[in-house]
Specification:
alpha/beta; seven-stranded mixed beta sheet; 8 helices; 243 residues
């Protein structure tokens, strides 16, 4: 990898949130040194792609990838991480509700967690969510059910703000909606996960694209799939001989 950090942001029809969020990412990360911002336009139809192209001309760190058709948040994240040049990845939702100013704190926590190997994940915890009452309620139920069955000890697995190593992510099994289970999948790979409280902000423009009612029913099917993966996980302890 040619740099330390890549920020990966999947977006679908978020034209009004692009410029402000990219500006905030730049402001938060410029003091850290070398980084890149990888936006994945997931089949937008509202001019998001054209806006990103225009912003790219003035933001040197910005890279833009495009899905011809909408493939979903997990696939968009994977596309961005596969293309990323950074050894470490930070992910953000594209709606502006995650605060990029939290990224340096999460990176510090990852340094302490994974050491030189970087094997671990730091997940954001939106203790004070700025969402509707229904979204807060449904998330509490989903987190309680998931946590009880998967025992991932992560109070807010749905928070889009996470940091982890690119190499670790590429070890994880890929499937649609996998982003909802990243902490459990990381633990399955034998790596630790910690949660850090982060700022959460109200959405200022647009509506949620990836958080609709059907996720409950899809999540139930995926939940049992992840439980199946957990039961069949093997993490060997490898010793090099003759060294």
């Amino acid at each position: 990898m040619s740099m330390r950090l890549s920020v990966v942001v999947p977006v679908h029809n978020e034209i009004d949130n692009l410029e402000s969020l990219i500006g905030e990412i730049t402001q938060a990360l410029t003091p850290l040194g070398d980084y890149e911002i990888v936006y994945v336009d997931d089949g937008s139809t509202d001019g998001t792609l054209e806006k990103l192209r225009a912003l790219k001309a003035s933001v040197a760190a910005l890279r833009v990838l495009r899905h011809v058709r909408c493939c979903g948040q997990s696939t968009a994240l994977r596309t961005g991480i596969l293309a990323a040049r950074g050894a470490w990845i930070a992910t953000l939702d594209g709606d502006g509700q995650n605060d990029p100013a939290d990224i340096p704190r999460l990176l510090d926590a990852l340094d302490q967690l994974g050491g030189e190997t970087g094997r671990g994940m730091v997940a954001g915890y939106r203790r004070k969510r700025k969402d509707t009452g229904w979204r807060r309620f449904s998330s509490r139920i989903a987190n309680a059910v998931r946590g009880g069955l998967l025992r991932d000890n992560t109070p807010d697995t749905g928070c889009g703000l996470k940091v982890f190593s690119r190499a670790l992510f590429l070890e994880l099994p890929y499937f649609d909606h996998m982003h909802r289970f990243l902490p459990a999948l990381t633990q399955r790979a034998g790596a630790p996960v910690v949660s850090v409280e982060v700022n959460h902000r109200p959405r200022l423009s647009g509506v949620s694209k990836y958080g609709t009612w059907h996720r409950l029913w899809v999540g139930i099917v995926d939940l049992f799939g992840v439980m199946w993966l957990q039961r069949r996980a093997r993490v060997p302890q490898v010793e090099e001989q003759g060294a």
